[in-house]
């Protein structure tokens, strides 16, 4: 991948994982992670004429796709590593704590106070030490960097690292096996690790489309500005998709593949979450159903005879919320 620039003019050089890197990561992880299932939902139930397959990555270890990249990164750490540090809205933190438990090393996770208490609890349940910081993900990330100065720990970035992207590519590798006939794969996009890995794994085979909440539009803003820029983040999916700046890997992949992110509203995300529970008894977190919201809202035009795969990426929530169990309007 050649050099590109940020919107501020800084040159960025990102080495994207090659196909061999993705296959090697999947081979390493295959005995340790789950091959998550694909479930078909009648297009009519979602208000579209085509065929929709749900890739249920919320059934992965720790309740989200994050387990793949976190474990791949931890397993690739130098011999003798005794600790890892990460910043996370919650899902990545739980995944890093879980992975560090497998490797027998310490995990210190910095989490924004805006994350649900259940996500903090899960980090601790996996043996990690949670440090709660006021603000959103960017504040937790800054705090993690300050804390790690002078300490013998390895930082595990939530989305913008080649090892994270290569681990997440397992989602795309499995989709390629489970639904080779699909025309498109829609994935939730926050910092872009899941999008990058899935898109690289399926490059030249199946189009991969990133979907963002309107209130966390880091990739859309980068495409418009001509490079990654900081954006304000908020809304119902901010705890999992609230990266204030798109990762350089994701921006490079989107540029190379000409991807145009789709945007969905908070109301559309919550409607998708309700329907997924009512129709399938699958309970996802708001960020996890962002791609499904694009199908239901019409942001993703699903045509008659077309098969679309929708990645449902996470399910870490404390209880069945009232907004989910409220009846779906017909």
From TrEMBL:
Assigned keywords, A-Z? Lyase, Pyridoxal phosphate
The source's superkingdom equals: Bacteria
Instruction: Provide one Gene Ontology biological process annotation.
Output: L-serine catabolic process
InterPro entries, A to Z: Ser/Thr_Dehydratase (IPR050147), Ser/Thr_deHydtase_PyrdxlP-BS (IPR000634), TrpB-like_PALP (IPR001926), TrpB-like_PALP_sf (IPR036052)
What's the cofactor?
pyridoxal 5'-phosphate
One Gene Ontology molecular-function label: pyridoxal phosphate binding
> Tryptophan synthase beta chain-like PALP domain: from which residue to which, for each copy?
30-314
Keyword Lyase included in the entry's annotation: yes
Q: What PANTHER family does UniProt report for this protein, alphabetically?
A: L-THREONINE DEHYDRATASE CATABOLIC TDCB, THREONINE DEHYDRATASE, MITOCHONDRIAL-RELATED
> Under what name is this protein listed?
Pyridoxal-phosphate dependent enzyme
- Which species is the source of this protein? Mumia zhuanghuii
